[in-house]
């Protein structure tokens, strides 16, 4: 059977704490139904949505642990089928978020016919599980519209960074991210236009 269109067990505003770094063993123990590679499907119903979360990563192990600790239960309460793709850049070259996102999307689309792709910074954790991790079928969606580091306001009107949601069709229509953006910033605003 299908789950209800709105998940039955959202918590609403969440308490997020960064004072302790959860060990990977604790994260795994709290999420026994998550399969190897970060895949989950609700055990008692057919999911309404299939969401891939693509996360560029390098040298941010503390952020990674907090991200997984909070995001797995957040997504499970929404009764989604999901996969979390941590795309790691090795070496000491300048970080290339755009290229990592492109690689992550390519791998995700090889694995599954996802309904939605969430392009997600590793240091952003949703603070309210009424924020559903599903796509608008008609338009790409900027999800991180209120972040604590910006006083819960957008830094500028056309800001599209942090967390964005696109359907695979939208992603293919925009031909992914331009790979020439090195360092942080620019690639997300480029696709917003």
From TrEMBL:
Gene3D superfamilies referenced in this protein's UniProt entry, alphabetically: Spore Coat Polysaccharide Biosynthesis Protein SpsA, Chain A
Catalytic activity: a neolactoside IV(3)-beta-GlcNAc-nLc4Cer + UDP-alpha-D-galactose = a neolactoside nLc6Cer + UDP + H(+); a beta-D-GlcNAc-(1->3)-beta-D-Gal-(1->4)-beta-D-Glc-(1<->1)-Cer(d18:1(4E)) + UDP-alpha-D-galactose = a neolactoside nLc4Cer(d18:1(4E)) + UDP + H(+); an N-acetyl-beta-D-glucosaminyl derivative + UDP-alpha-D-galactose = a beta-D-galactosyl-(1->4)-N-acetyl-beta-D-glucosaminyl derivative + UDP + H(+); a beta-D-glucosylceramide + UDP-alpha-D-galactose = a beta-D-galactosyl-(1->4)-beta-D-glucosyl-(1<->1)-ceramide + UDP + H(+)
Subcellular localization: Golgi apparatus, Golgi stack membrane
Pathway named in the protein's UniProt entry: Protein modification; protein glycosylation
Keyword Transmembrane helix tagged: yes
Residue ranges constituting the Galactosyltransferase N-terminal domain according to the UniProt record: 4-136
UniProt GO MF annotations: beta-N-acetylglucosaminylglycopeptide beta-1,4-galactosyltransferase activity; metal ion binding; N-acetyllactosamine synthase activity
Annotated family: Belongs to the glycosyltransferase 7 family.
Annotated protein name in UniProt: Beta-1,4-galactosyltransferase 3
Source organism phylogeny: Eukaryota, Metazoa, Chordata, Craniata, Vertebrata
